[in-house]
Design goal:
The protein has 13 helices and five strands. It is mainly α. The strands form two sheets. The chain has a three-stranded antiparallel β-sheet with strand order 1-3-2. A two-stranded parallel sheet has the order 4-5. Helix 6 crosses helix 7, helix 8 crosses helix 13 and helix 10 packs across helix 11.
């Protein structure tokens, strides 16, 4: 039996809905196996399937997600809609939300506001959202400094959590994730990645993250335009 033909970088990029530069970065980091043929990479379908398996974070039965954020995230991603993503949060999106929870706790909050979701996306440097924010000149330190002055912003603040309490998503952050799921469905992506969460942030106009972006001289439509330079809808 003849072996299956190898995939090109362009074919892998089209399948994963990312750009070719990101594919090369995945190879350079050792995240995605490839064959070097001349000056080009070629990919086996089995290696691509293994990469996707490692990235997959199931929406159902995700004990880690439920332990960190409670039932709200798990319930958010349980959708019967035909347009809803089936594979839940990617590893990068999960890590970004974990960073958001960490930043909220360090700031003495019991809730994870959208400003901390934005900060988590910026810290998760392997995600597309971080690259978009970097292209716009936004660094974690700038978000953190702007967020520290948000006492009069619309998302309610709360006292510092106890050692046994995990921070909870604010109502606004919950809406962000709902928007992320909806956008992933609109783009016909089978996952919810950092790019979808960042898009969701731009749609919650009364969230703290939009105020942070405006303080940094960035309008939500600027973020969306930069995202669309990199995202490939199906």
């Amino acid at each position: 039996m003849e072996p299956e033909p190898l995939l090109t970088s362009d074919e892998v990029a089209a399948y994963l809905k990312i750009d070719v530069v990101t594919v090369r970065r995945l190879v350079a980091r050792g995240d995605l196996a490839a064959y070097r043929i001349g000056n080009e990479y070629r990919f086996a379908r089995g290696d691509l399937a293994e990469y996707l398996r490692r990235q997959h974070v199931p929406a159902r039965g995700s004990a880690a997600a439920e332990a960190l954020f409670g039932e709200e995230i798990a319930q958010l991603l349980r959708s019967d809609s035909n347009d809803a993503p089936r594979s839940g949060l990617t590893r990068g999106a999960r890590q970004a939300l974990q960073y958001a929870a960490e930043e909220a706790r360090q700031a003495g909050r019991t809730t994870i506001g959208t400003e901390y979701v934005l900060l988590g996306l910026c810290r998760e440097t392997t995600g597309l959202a971080a690259r978009v924010l970097e292209n716009l000149g936004i660094a974690p330190e700038a978000i953190r400094a702007a967020a520290a002055g948000g006492e009069d912003w619309p998302e309610p603040l709360a006292d510092a959590p106890s050692a046994s309490d995990a921070p909870k998503l604010s109502e606004h952050a919950h809406r962000v994730l709902q928007g992320a799921v909806a956008q992933a469905g609109e783009w016909r992506h089978h996952y919810v990645g950092t790019e979808h969460v960042l898009w969701g942030l731009t749609q919650v106009a009364d969230g703290n993250s939009v105020l942070v972006l405006e303080l940094l001289g960035i309008a939500p439509d600027m973020v969306q335009a930069e995202l669309l330079r990199h995202v490939k809808p199906a």
